[in-house]
């Protein structure tokens, strides 16, 4: 691709996506609210690797309900806020994963399995 063709392609992309309407949207709370809100699902995704003993059942339940309510809100407001909707969809899945881990650990024997594995590995390793 020649340099002039690259320049033309770059200018075309910039004209299409960096315009007055895009900049107006980027500098509103309709954009920055969901972007800053993405910290919640990112933290939940990161926490999926941590020990399930640390999961708070009531807080996980509250976050599941919170995301369900705000998914509805994101589609009700005008104009619809699909970025906020996507944020809460991701959070709903991440928090549901945390809820399954919580229930498995505390109510379905995950804690006992963890203790058995620790005891087995301690016996298997000679000192």
From TrEMBL:
Protein name as annotated: Mitochondrial pyruvate carrier
Domain of life: Eukaryota
Record membrane topology: Multi-pass membrane protein
Family designation: Belongs to the mitochondrial pyruvate carrier (MPC) (TC 2.A.105) family.
Native source species: Lachancea nothofagi CBS 11611
GO CC annotation: mitochondrial inner membrane
Biological function: Mediates the uptake of pyruvate into mitochondria.
Subcellular location: Mitochondrion inner membrane
Classification via PANTHER family: UPF0041 BRAIN PROTEIN 44-RELATED (PTHR14154)
Alphabetical keyword list: Membrane, Mitochondrion, Mitochondrion inner membrane, Transmembrane, Transmembrane helix, Transport
